[in-house]
């Protein structure tokens, strides 16, 4: 059992609160085939990164912004197999309002669509791909989340599912709990704790602090 003390929690979205892997994989495969790119090469780097960065890396000849709009609309419309992660609803509802947020590599349009599809609350603080200059593994998204929550980054805890997200959080001075939903636990060992499921996490609060227990 491990215990973390913090003032706020920042959640990644896809693979942590919502399981969108089937939709993400389908749409990236379709996009890759349209442009003559090996789908496996795309999927190897796509999870946990901003769409615009993946497009720029693999198809620098394309207008990245236009490709992002097309991909995000397709993903938002592709809801087959998209589900709420077990325990996600109970976990976020156990945290007092204003003490948690979402930091995602998707756009705000896609993030709010996924949260509403899963009947999850849309937090006051939602940092999306279109609101930062650099995405994960750069710490900017998480640092922006901490700033909007008005909390010192060192007092934030992050829950992630991807190596890029873990590195981003650590670069911002934050502790990380990882969930092996998208990557195997063996690739998440940089995290401060790894849980098999969200229900292993219990959150309590007292004297303005959150106490996060990992079983």
Give an overview of the whole structure:
By secondary structure, the chain is α/β, with parallel strands linked by helices. It contains eight helices and eleven strands. Strand 5 (100-103), helix 6 (108-117) and strand 6 form a beta-alpha-beta unit. It has helices at residues 21-34, 39-46, 51-58, 64-77, 88-93, 108-117, 140-149, 163-171, and strands at residues 2-6, 8-11, 18-19, 83-84, 100-103, 125-127, 156-160, 175-178, 193-194, 201-206, 209-214. The model has no long low-confidence stretch (mean pLDDT 95). 45% of the residues are buried. The protein folds into two domains: 2-20 and 82-214, HAD superfamily/HAD-like (Rossmann fold); 21-77, DNA polymerase, domain 1 (Orthogonal Bundle), CATH 1.10.150. The strands form three sheets. The chain has a six-stranded parallel β-sheet, with helices on one face. The chain has a three-stranded antiparallel β-sheet with strand order 1-11-10, with no helix packed on it. A two-stranded antiparallel ribbon has the order 3-4.
Write a compact overview of the structure shown.
With about 220 residues, this protein is of the alpha/beta class.
Q: Spans of 5+ residues with little confidence (pLDDT < 50)?
A: none
When the domains are counted, the total is 2
CATH homologous superfamily (4th level) name of the largest domain = HAD superfamily/HAD-like
Number of helices: 8
Structural class: alpha/beta
> Please, what is the average pLDDT?
95
Rg on CA atoms, Å: 16 Å
């Amino acid at each position: 059992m491990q215990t973390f003390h913090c003032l706020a929690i920042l959640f990644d979205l896809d693979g942590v609160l919502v399981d969108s892997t089937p939709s993400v994989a389908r749409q990236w495969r379709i996009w890759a085939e349209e442009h003559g790119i090996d789908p496996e090469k795309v999927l190897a780097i796509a999870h946990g990164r901003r769409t615009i960065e993946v497009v720029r890396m693999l198809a620098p000849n394309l207008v990245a912004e236009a490709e992002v709009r097309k991909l995000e609309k397709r993903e938002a419309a592709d809801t087959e197999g998209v589900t709420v992660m077990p325990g996600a609803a109970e976990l976020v509802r156990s945290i007092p309002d204003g003490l948690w947020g979402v930091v995602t590599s998707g756009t705000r349009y896609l993030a709010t669509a996924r949260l509403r599809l899963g009947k999850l609350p849309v937090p006051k603080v939602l940092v999306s791909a279109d609101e930062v200059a650099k995405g994960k593994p750069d710490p900017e998204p998480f640092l922006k989340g901490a700033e909007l929550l008005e909390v010192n980054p060192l007092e934030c805890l992050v829950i992630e599912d991807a190596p890029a997200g873990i590195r981003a959080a650590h670069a911002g001075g934050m502790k990380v709990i990882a969930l092996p939903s998208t990557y195997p636990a063996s690739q998440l060992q940089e995290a401060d704790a790894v849980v098999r499921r969200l229900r292993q996490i219990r959150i309590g609060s007292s004297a303005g602090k959150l106490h996060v227990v990992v079983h």
